[in-house]
Design a protein that fits this description.
alpha/beta; binds adenosine-5'-diphosphate; 55% helix; binds magnesium ion; GMP Synthetase, Chain A, domain 3; 21 helices; Rossmann fold; 3-stranded mixed beta sheet
């Protein structure tokens, strides 16, 4: 059994980070865990109290709301005792700043990456879309997990994998990440990615030039075929016919098929029934619009990729004002061009101005016009229950779920602290709030009704 003197907090945290790395995606690891360290460990009657220092209040909030249980579990495994955690904003005094780019390991990694990059292009994949730079949150967790499973076991996990969702939610990115991972483990794998439109053009050209057979050979011998925006082939009889046979041939020979679309198969008008039923025989997953935290993570990834370092306040301002991942990219490009042309430093007020916000507003400017009381009223009205029942102690499901959704919305959409939420919903403590927020986050990725309710409530805020 460890006594407090046996524990070297830096070694413990190093080992803990190694374990965390195995359980979360690299962007999440880099964003939330890397900028942390242990400030202090003290003994309590039941175990240990560990204070975790976080580089910013944003990292602190995220760890408290999203990863508290996860961290407790990992530390309990290491220390064999219950661990209470508290978080503080505190920079790491031992931060390692040395560059790793001189090491031979790093060099061989670069060579490997260059080889794959060349291959990526010849397979029709887009460069730079990998799992490493794909951030995960409740809105895309199911799709991400399915994509990882397919990437690690093509042809055997889910076949076909059908990913659908609105514009800019990351379908194309995720599909490319699967292809990239397959190439990483087998550089000469015969895989191909095209859009529904490119597939259509290939088939039409094959018919026109009487080269249908060679087009068939190209597609039917693949180890994996990715068709982005498959809805494009709907209503085109000859193309659907060809795709049907390609699909069957590929699946029968153990090949993997991954498809994306803006809607589920059942809702694609003029898509042949036999294709619908083939698509439905695999796994269908959807990706919802990114929530605030995911938008922040995407901003961190994209700004780093573009070589700019945005501070957390700026990131939060942008994430609060732009809802779609695609617009985030556009905005970042504009921002970077502006600062280069005008040779200025990025500041929160400058970003607000670019966003068309006249004055420095609260971070959640769009939503901040509403007070917590107004939000409570709107949620109660949406579920047609009284405020008293919504905030009360009844354990009836038709009150508990709206109460949990209310806590989720106050936290994720309005950025209220756990303590503030506890106070406005009838004096509950912050662990109740964490539990509720986490529960709804989990349900969002599996329960369409919950997601529909949250979207419905959000519409009443507009
Ligand atoms: P879709 O195909 O669903 O319209 P894309 O895959 O083209 O969307 O994504 C739009 C942009 O947003 C891309 O630059 C992509 O890298 C980025 N993006 C979307 N979701 C994520 C995510 N979870 N993590 C990182 N980047 C993302
Ligand atoms: Mg796309």
């Amino acid at each position: 059994m460890n006594t407090i003197n046996d524990i070297d907090k830096d070694i413990l945290w190093k080992e803990t980070l190694e374990r965390i790395k195995l359980s979360v995606t690299l962007p999440n690891y880099n964003a939330w865990f890397l900028p942390t360290h242990i400030v202090s460990i003290s003994q309590t009657t039941s175990g240990y109290l560990i204070n975790i220092g976080c580089s910013s209040s944003f990292v602190k909030n995220t760890l408290e709301t999203r990863y508290l249980g996860f961290l407790q579990e990992i530390l309990k495994n290491s220390l064999q005792k219950h661990c209470e955690l508290e978080f503080s904003v505190n920079t790491n005094p031992n931060k390692i700043t040395e560059s790793q780019s001189d090491s031979p390991l790093f060099e061989s990694l670069i060579n490997k990456t260059e080889n794959i990059d060349n291959k990526v292009i010849s397979c029709g994949l887009r460069k730079g879309y990998t799992f490493t730079n794909f951030a995960v949150s409740s809105s895309n967790q199911m799709a991400w997990a399915a994509a990882e499973a397919v990437a690690n076991n093509p042809g055997n996990a889910y076949n076909p994998l059908f990913i659908w969702g609105g514009v800019g939610v990351g379908k194309t990115h995720l599909m490319n990440a699967i292809g990239y991972t397959i190439l990483e483990s087998q550089i000469d794998a015969n895989i191909f990615l095209c859009t529904g439109e490119q597939f259509t053009n290939d088939i039409v050209e094959g018919i026109r030039n009487k080269t249908t057979q060679s087009v068939r050979n190209k597609y039917r011998k693949l180890k994996a075929l990715f068709v982005d925006d498959i809805q494009f082939i709907a209503g085109k009889d000859a193309v659907q016919e060809e795709f049907f046979h390609t699909f069957n041939a590929l699946i029968n020979s153990g090949g993997q098929v991954v498809l994306t679309s803006d809607r589920p198969p059942s809702e694609i008008a003029k898509l042949e029934e036999r294709l619908k039923s083939r698509f439905e025989a695999g796994l269908i997953v959807d990706i919802a619009q990114p929530d605030f935290e995911l938008r922040c993570a995407i901003l961190q990834i994209k700004s780093k990729e573009k070589g700019v370092d945005l501070d957390m306040e700026t990131i939060q301002i942008i994430a609060a004002n732009i809802n779609s991942a695609r617009q985030i990219e556009g905005f970042l490009t504009r921002l970077i061009t502006e600062i280069k042309v005008k040779d200025i430093e990025i500041s929160p007020s400058y970003v607000l101005e670019m966003l068309g916000k006249p004055e420095k507003e609260e971070v959640k400017s769009k939503n901040s016009k509403l007070t917590p009381e107004e939000i409570i009223s709107k949620v109660a009205k949406y579920f047609t229950i009284s405020k008293k029942c919504l905030l009360g102690n009844s354990r009836q499901k038709n009150f508990v779920v709206p109460r949990q959704i209310l806590m989720y919305i106050l936290r994720v959409e309005f950025g209220l602290s756990l303590q503030e939420i506890g106070k406005v919903i009838g004096g509950r403590d912050h662990t109740t709030v964490i539990h509720a927020v986490n529960k709804i986050k989990k349900l969002i990725s599996s329960d369409v009704n919950i997601r529909g309710d949250i979207e419905g409530i959000k519409k009443t805020f507009l």
